[in-house]
Amino acid sequence: EITARDYDGKLVLSDKRTLDFGPYSAKLLKFQLPAAERMIYFVEAKVTPPGGSEIFSRTNLAILPPHEYEHRDESRFALSAYFLIPSAEDVYALMKRIGVRTLRHGDNRVTAKYGILCLDHASVLPKDSPEKVSKRITEMIRRAAERQNPAIEFCNEWNMNRKGEEKRRCAGHYVEVLREFKALRDKEYPALKIIGMGMAGGDTEFLEMMAEAGAIPLMDGGVAMHPGRGNMTPDYIGEGWTYLGAIRRYRKTMEKLGIRTLHLSEVYAATPPNNSWMDSGRHAAENILLTYAIGLAEGAETIQFYQLHDSVWPDLGGVNHEDSEYHYGLLMRDGTVKPSLLAYAAVAEALDGAKFVRYLTFGGNIRGIGFETPRGPLAFLYDRTDGYFLTERKSGYAAPEPWVDSWKTRVKADFEAVGDEVTSVDSIGRATGIPVRDGRVTLELSGAPLMVYGIRF
Known about the structure:
- The protein has 457 residues and is α/β, with parallel strands linked by helices.
- The protein contains eight helices and 22 strands.
- A seven-stranded parallel sheet has the order 7-6-5-14-13-12-11, with helices on one face. Strands 15-16-17-22-19-20 form a six-stranded antiparallel sheet, with helices on one face. The protein has a four-stranded antiparallel sheet with strand order 2-1-3-4, with no helix packed on it.
- Helix 3 (130-147) links the parallel strand 8 and strand 9.
- The longest helix has 25 residues, at 164-188.
- The radius of gyration is 24 Å and the shape is globular.
- 41% of the residues are buried.
């Protein structure tokens, strides 16, 4: 039995037949899916041998139209990590299509022809010996110069799970190492900007401890932060592993310390199967839209999604159902497209050349983020009647299928139109024209954000 559903859950293919196989034989079956300008199809093949158990396999097929970005040089869209699978040419071409401008690491001699700028990111560990630190620092600066990297994010998440005096000692040690790095940088490659360590979460305490130890003058490229997010929408302002909440807390401390530049060097919409703390396949796509709209609104220098493929550096193309780190990609481990990749492209297209105007309220639970773009005013609109939390955290949780829209509430609202046409764009980039009557337009909203061109705000 072969079935395929589109993003709206419509069954667009259903074929059931009996197949006879000889020993070691194979059959090739071909099927036609509906033509579309932009779509993702969820395909399943299953076989039930006589007297045996069902065997099944799934994949996704996606369509993206060609697109050229007009304002790549000023884009904040970035990736934290990527694997060159199946090839460098394929991966860089895909990055170019979906709107990636900056990479956390890489070689500009290779990526320049794709319009992609590579920073660098490298680490030493708190436990490393002074000799090992010095050797690594020398290698880092030499590599950055060879690859023409304009900035380097130096070290990663030393603050994770540290408390009290241990945290203070670690912050002080980081500044000692940072001072050594800057001294060699000044001598060997003075054009290289130093971005302070990527912080796990909005850990303002660790940042203040770094500042007390003398870090501020050593970080001429700003600081980096990883606003981890749990089972809530990115616009939730709260303590802990939140997105907007963590950014706001961190920004407040940065302003107090006189730090201006913030890199969000790991942002997330992870999709480990049936995990009630992280995103379903559909929620990930929706949350990527808000992740980038909020990141741009909050003035981040780069917004680096972690990461392009599922799997991890020590196990490329591997799988481990007990480790959620294997499921952070826009693509599955074999390159299969998730809705997340279409969402990344959709929001990159929408925010190409965009300037943040303000956060929007329209009464009730309707929220928004307003931008001015070369294509006219753009509002990210959504309704929070159903709240900010996407799941109830529990064992035995089963995530809804990605073609199922699980938001319960639908709200119709009228908006003033700027002109004669209003266009709504969903989380995978499908555009719908909506009629304007007497200068107003009616939109149906839920917790899933829509990107809407042409309303007045």
